[in-house]
Amino acid sequence: MGLAANGFSIEHAIVGHVGFLLFPLVSTMLHALTRPQGRPIENACVIALCAALMLHQGGALILVLCSGTLVLALQVLQVAGRPAINWASLVGILARALPLTIGLCASKIVAVQALMGRFPRELFDSYPIGFGHALFGLGSQLAGGLTILPILVAGGYLPQRLDDALIWATGAGVHLWEIDTALSPVVTLTLVSGAVLGGVRLWRHGLQRPSPAMAVAIAGLALMTWITIETTLAKGVLYPWLKSLPVLRSMHVNHRVAAVLILPLTIAAALLFDRWQRTARRSLVNLAVAIAVAAPLFYLTLPDYVHRRTFDVSASVRVHERIRAGETFPVLRNDLITDDRAIAENASSQLVYEPLFGYDNEYFTPKVREGAITLERDGALNLTNASSLLFPELNGLQPFDLIRATERDDLERFAARQQPHWKVPAMFGWLNAAAVATLAFCVGVLLASPIRRRDR
Question: Would the pTM count as exceeding 0.85?
Answer without folding.
Answer: yes
